[in-house]
Every structure is written in structure tokens, then in C-alpha cells.
Amino acid sequence: MKRKSLSVLLLLFLMILVFLPGQLPVDSAGPRRIEVVVTGSFGGVTAPSGRSFVILYWEEPGNTAASSTHRVFEAQVAATGVTWSDRGQGVRVTSGGPDRQEYIGYYRYPVNPITTAVTLLNHRNYIYRVGASATADFNEARVYPPLESAHTNYQKHTDTCAGCHRTHRAVHPMLLNRRLMRELCLECHDGRASKYNVLDGRVNIGTGWVDSPGGPFWRVDGQGNQLSTSYHNVFLEQDFALQPTDPGYRRLYAPGGGGDRYNLTCTDCHSAHVTQNTSPFRLLKSQTPVTAFPFIDNGRYRVLYMDGMNSFCSNCHEQYNYGASTALGYPLHVLGGGIKESGGFYRHPTNINVSAWATQQTMAHLTLPLEVRSNGRFMTCKTCHFAHGSVVRGPQPSYEMAALDEPKYDRVGNVIYLGITSKLKRRDGMGICLECHLDQVWGNTPFQP
Amino acid sequence: MKLKVTLRKLIIFILILLIVLTAVFLYLFLTRSRLLDRIPWLPASTSPPVFSHFLQEAALSSPLAIAIDPLDNIFVADFLNGRIVTFDRRGNKTGEFGEGQLTRPVGVAEMDGFLYVADLAAQSIEVFTATGHFRRTLLASGTNEQIGPFVPVSLAADRQAGLLYFSDSAGHRVVAVDREGAFRFAFGHPGSEEGAFLYPGAVTVGTGGNIYVADTNNVRVQVFSPGGRKVLRQLPAVPGEEMFALPRSLAVDAHGNLWVADSLTHRIAVFGGGKKLFEFGSLGVSEGELYFPNAIAFDQAGRLYVVERGLNRVSVFAAPAADPANLFRRLTE
């Protein structure tokens, strides 16, 4: 009997040994959340002019040591790639610390927000990763001094939820206090309360406002003339209730949309909140993360794209995303070999590695954005197109869609697209093509490398 | 116990009831106007009607600012249409101007018969006559060494001192210039501490020359002494206390009370004597409700004009018949 009891106890002990580790908190993928504090003064100390204090907080369940197990890495972004500077471990926040009144956190970077303060330039983008390394098992925080992001940090001021939401008397199914999504977004992003002015396509980089990489939705010149020659039309929400007899009804049909109406608005691409399905870059909504890092390059606001943009665009433009890493698997952009039929048409491929041309004249002057990956530089939708809108001149008929060639109709038979458009392009006319194909049109002889 | 009801008693009871009800009705009828006056946020029938509904006659598109001159001419900055639309006090559209000179008018102020317009996209301050004739560019970003680059997001006039104030979203500061555009002083820097700003919005000048600034992204209002030398107080007084969501516009009434329009809570709060007196407004599109109020101003009769960006509408509210502070006390006592 005694032996039997011992056997049972031993079995129980073994079971505990086997299953217990699985029940303990595992934090191998970096902290579950990072809270960012951005402030002009801390502990009675004012940040230097043009800078703000930045402090990161995160939890490490089960850790009671003075130092965090996670390390902090800061991105250094350039046109050629991103490198990560190891800023060391965080320190456990104690009740007697300088930030005791501020946040009930667990670990903090920097070690002391005053004596080892991190002050960052206002109106610049900073990217931090906290975890085991900068390339795996991390969580990422984007910091935009002098503001704490309005799209995060709600737990500090819970009433800020009420700035956008109503619990019982909302006028939008997402419990929002506005009827149209863009109204809410433009309340800040019209140039008055955010560094990113989406109407005019300008970004405040601290030394002034410069063109944004997304382009403008609706830019006008000094004479009030409309400059935008194409844009993703996010101004349609109130038109969706129009009847087919109303002229404005046609605007609901996206060019190439195949006759389906679409009620496009800001939150079709961007989330207002940080969620599991949003990318840190621009809070883009995509199951496939978009990896990209903004940076300032000689007074210009640029973005280092690394991965995921094609996949993001193909959430809607599903027949345009093919190339090197897709099932079609074309290693090079070679006429006849690289261009295949997709959705009933032959289309210029995206997602192709253009590094093979790196030594040629065409690549020497190429300034269009490419995705910089470990195995080369890849063409993306954003290589040729803006995401928001374009102001390039020389708009042309869209032959695939205009009445000149193949008009598109809506479901009641109206021609839905007759105009001309710059198609969100980054260069006038066919200037986009010449960025890569200059050697094919330059002179009468083949280019000699 | 049995209650014996006779016909006589029943008739007497009905008569008494009728007398009481008549008295109550007469009291309510005779005091109805006073009751309405005691609720200042109801549009009164004697005030001009709410005008410019939903892109109708005036066809405003994202109006963001308003100025009213001593003759009660009303100037509205029509942000997306790049123009100024003028109205009389009855709400009739009397004209429009600025197309060709303005890109994104975001602030307006009247002084000495001239209308000054802050243009966000052109990064400049333009001058027009009250009848809409373009006079000159008063100031352009980067053209004044003392001021440097700027992006104006609001404009206010101090007629007594002959100064124009504009808030600058590039430098997170408030800049004062004179009628000729010469730099007088500036205050503020990026940050959240006292005296600092994050995307400052409206500026207005109160009695005694105190300067009120809607520190929009710090979700507060700061009150400065003349010249911006010292912070006198902040609303909310306790940092972290939640009083606003996005304070956009400010106006000081004849009694020295501060009115704050909050565009995200769709409310207007009134402060006086160091405390909040009352607030009004709620999300909605009906008269008396507000939808993204972005600018407020008083006319000479003390009527409050509210520019609602979300409806492309200007609503007019009855003038408080008395000091709002006393009014509020009557309401709450």
C-alpha cells in the first residue's frame, strides 16, 4: 500500500515537472506591450530646446531582478538599411524612483530618466525594439517626439476614449461620435494638430514642413487651383447612400474595380489603434506585417521599405502582386519570362529583384523607393505609386478603363470612368518608366555598361 | 370608515382642481420667456436663425475660423474652398473673397477695418479690406529673420494694443506682430510643461491684455500675462485632470468669462472667477446641438457664433441676458 502511494506521488511529481514549465509565463517574444512617455520636462528638469525626454516602460512577469531580461535596441535608419544599436537592459522601477508618481510600470529605459536621460529631437521618428534581440523575439515601439502618440497610451487618460467614442449615444456603428470616419481623422491631420498633414501631403520634420512620401489627398496651389491629379478617394462616405441616378454615384466605383462599389475611407488602410493586425509603420492594417522605417535624408522625409508593402496593397489590388517571392517565382524581370498573365491581363510585375541592374546606368540615378531586403532590392507598388495622392502633371487617359479603349460600366449600365488620371504616379507622364528603362529609349544604340 | 361622496362635494373638488391647474398654467405662461433666458444654450427665437446648413447657399467646406467686426460683419474662413465668406448678422451671405489669394485659410482677425487671414498651406498672413479687396501679404514664413519659418494655425487681434497673434504649429509657439508685420514678441516651445505647447490652436486676448492659448495637444488652456511673460493659470489647474478632449477655439465675453470650444466632445465650456461655470452642447445635427465646433466668436450684442466644421454650419446662440456666472448660480441654487 505504502509502495503504491509512493508511486502515485512520484507520478504526480513527474507530471508537475512536465507541465509546470508550460504554465509559467513565457515572454520569449519580447514584452507584451511597451508604454512610451514623451515629455518636455521630467522630475523638474526641462529637456534641451528642440528635444523631449523619452522613457519606455514594459512588464516582465515573474522577473524580480534589478535588471530586465529584455534589452533595448534603437534603430539607425538609412537609405541602404537599418542597423540596431544595443542600448542595454532596463532597470526595475522602484517605489522610490524618480517616476514613482507617474506610472506603475515594471522595467524602464533609460536607467534613470534624469541622470542618464534620453532626449530625442522633436518631430523625428524613433524606433525602439525591446526583447532578446533586435531581429527576433522583440516588441516594437515607435516614438514621435514631442507627442505621445494619440493612437496609443489610452490607459493613462481613459477619458481620452471619449474623444472619439460614445458608449450609448454614438452615431456610427463603431461607437464613434461622428458620422464619417474622415471627419475624425482630419480633425488632427489637416495640418493643425499632427506632424502629418494628409490633405496637403506635408510632414513636419522639425526644420519645416516637407513633402510626405504618401503624397497629398487634396492639395491646392496659391490660386486655389486643385493640384491633385489622382488620389485614393476617401471622400466618399456620405455618397454611399446616393441613388444610381445621382451623378455622384459614379464616384463610388474605383477605376478597375469591376463594377463593385466601394466605400473607401481612412480606416480601410489604417487602424486608429495598435492591434495584433496592424503594422507599427503607419498602423497599416494587414495580416502580413509591413516593415518600413521613416527617416530624414538631407532634409527630405523618406521611408526605408523592407517588406510587406506589396502584400498590403494586394489586399485590394489582388491581381497586381506577383514576382520573385510569389508562387510564380520569377527571379528576374525578363520580358517573356517575367511577365505573366494575371487576372486576364499581362501586367508589369511587382516584387521583383532589381539588384541585377545595380551597376548599370539606370540604377545609378534611380531615386524611387525600393524594398531593401537581405537578398536584394525589390520593386514594390510604392516604387511607382503614391499611396494617398499625386500632383504630377501630364495626366493621361487610362486606356484600360477609359472610353477610348474599354469602358467600364456599373451595374445599371452607366460608364463609370471617362476622365484622365495620373494614377497616383510619382513622376510625370511616363517618367516612371524611364527611371528603369532609360537605356531602352536613350539614343540609338544599346547601353554599354 | 365609510367615505360618503355627495354630488356637491365632487363639484367643489373639481372646481378647486381647475383653479389650481389654471394658476399653474398662468404662472408658467407668464414666466416662459424668463425661463428660456435662463438657459442660454437654447437658440432663442429672437436671435438670428442658424444659417448655412449643409453646403446649401454658402456651400462652406470645413470652415475653421470666424471673425466679427464692430459693425457685426461676419467673416468665416472656408478652409477647403480657400476663401473667406461674409455674412450679416441675420445670417445672409453678403459676399466671398480670397479665391486666388488664399489656399487654406485657417485663421481670421479683424482690426482697424482690415481683415487679416492666416493661410496654413501658404504659411503666410494676408491682408484684405473689409470688403474683400486684397491689400498685401503681411508676413510670409521665413521672410522675417526674427520670426523665421512658421506655419500659422490661428489668428487673433488685440485692437487696443494694435497687435496680431498667431499660433505656429512648426515652432509650437505664439508669435505677436504689429500692424506692419514687425516682430514684437513670441512665447512657448514644444513640450508639456507649464508655458510649453504642443500644436497650439486658438489665441485670444482678454481684459487686461491677458493672452489665452488653446494648447490643443496638451489638452489644456493656458493663460499668460501680457507679453506672454508668465503663465497665470492653466485649465485644468491640475495636470492630468481631464477637462477637454481637443480644445480648439476660445472667446472672451463682455463679462470677462472664457468660452472654450472643444471639437471632439462637441461642447462649449464657460469659465469665470477661476472655475467652470457651465457647459453646453452635445453631439448632434439639430439646432442647439454641435458637431465639431472649431471656432467661436461674439458679436456686439453678445450673441455667440459657433462654426461647426462637421456640418459646414454656423450656429448662433442667444446672448446671455446677464452675467453667465450669476445665471449659472441661479440655475444651480
**What does the average pLDDT of chain B come to?**
83
* Helix fraction of chain A by DSSP (H/I, runs of at least 4): 10-25%
Give the strand order, joined by hyphens, for the main sheet of chain B.
1-2-3-4
* Main beta sheet of chain B: 4 strands, antiparallel
**Global shape of chain B:** elongated
Provide mean pLDDT of chain A, rounded. Answer: 77
Chains forming the largest contact: A-B, 47 and 49 residues
Distance between the termini of chain A: 89 Å
What's the β-strand tally of chain A? 23
Low-confidence stretches of chain B: 32-56, 321-333
**What is the count of helical runs of chain A?**
6
Summing up helix and strand content along with how strands pair, one would put the structural category of chain A as alpha+beta
Q: What gyration radius of chain A follows from the Cα positions, in whole Å?
A: 26 Å
- Sheet/helix structural class of chain B: mainly beta
Proportion of β residues of chain A? Answer: 15-25%
Distance between the termini of chain B: 45 Å
Written overview of the protein:
The complex is a heterodimer of chains A (449) and B (333). Chain A is α+β, with helices and mostly antiparallel strands and 449 residues long. Chain A is built from 6 helices and 23 strands. Helices cover 12% and strands 22% of the residues of chain A. Mean pLDDT of chain A is 77; it is low at 16-27 and 399-407. Chain B is mostly beta strands. Chain B has helices at 7-30, 32-37, 324-332, and strands spanning 63-68, 74-78, 83-87, 93-97, 105-111, 114-119, 124-129, 134-140, 152-158, 163-168, 173-178, 183-187, 200-205, 211-215, 220-224, 231-235, 247-252, 258-262, 267-272, 275-280, 293-298, 304-308, 313-317. A 4-stranded antiparallel beta sheet of chain B has the order 1-2-3-4, with no helix packed on it. Chain B has a 4-stranded antiparallel beta sheet with strand order 5-6-7-8, with no helix packed on it. Chain B is elongated and about 100 Å long. The model of chain B is unreliable at 32-56 and 321-333 (pLDDT under 50). The interface between A and B is large, with 47 and 49 residues.
